[in-house]
Amino acid sequence: PEDALLWEKRAEIRLQNNDLVHAKSDLEKSATYQSENPGIWVKMSNINRRLGEVNEAIHNMRTASTLAPRDLTIAAKEIKLLIDQKQYREAEVKAVDILKNKRNDETALILLAKAQAEQGKFDQAMESVTKATENHPDKPDLILEKIKIKKSRDGMEAALTDLINLAHNNPDNPEVLTSLTDWLIQANRLEEAQEAAQTILRIIPDSAEVHLMLGRLQRIKGQLDQAIAHLSNAVNYDPGFVEAYLELGKAYQDRRDLDEAIKIFQKGALADGSDHRPYYYAGMALKEIKDYANAELMLRQAKKFAPDDPQIIRQLGVITALNLINNLREVK
Q: 145 and 129 in contact (C-beta within 8 Å)?
């Protein structure tokens, strides 16, 4: 029906502006006309995840899977969602279910390997990813996944040489080069990371992830104006890219523009309400300007999505105490 398409289109426009609450409302209206359409429930899942309604997001994705039980793309999205929410055992079970019917499905095998690796089952993970590469032993993205598992098992130094060799053999592969840039930054090999990032930028100049990498590099070097320019490009190219908001907020913090940093972190929270980090960093910036009441609110939100994070728990305790002391002073 035309009304269904109209509400769905309105939701897409609102999503581009990170207006998640109204996007959800519009999509719910669309769903009343096309409740049997699995695609609507996939979109609803994405919105609910970004709003922080994780259980609802998983339920939406399972509804989509029920409506389209043979659609492996939807099944893969459900597994990815479970992995993102650290529900690794459930993700493993779902991947195994897919493989019962499609024994050599590459996507299912890679997702199974990721879920296994996150549980510390590195030998099983390596078996799964090796099986995925059997039919395409030279496929760069499959080799990359194998190297990532090696990194998880053996550490950065053990895997970095393999990744450098993979990039050498695939000099125009953006995914490989992006991973290489990220790892080189982590290894503090900044000049090599800069060279890799500039190479990717020539291949895909409108990539938010590449601008994030370049912005992160410039921030580490203390070149804050250039960092802010690249990171602003990243959020413009992808308004839902939380990682870019975090790095941009940190750049403003480094420049001691804490009010702007807080605004950026809050935009990051709007982009994905299920991610604890924007709330945490906003809380820490609010602490710096001695706004303890709002800092406490932000950290409580962070704890809601990462209840066992020791850093959040520790800082929440400190700020709660500071807020209490501040309130007592105001009473006097």
A: yes
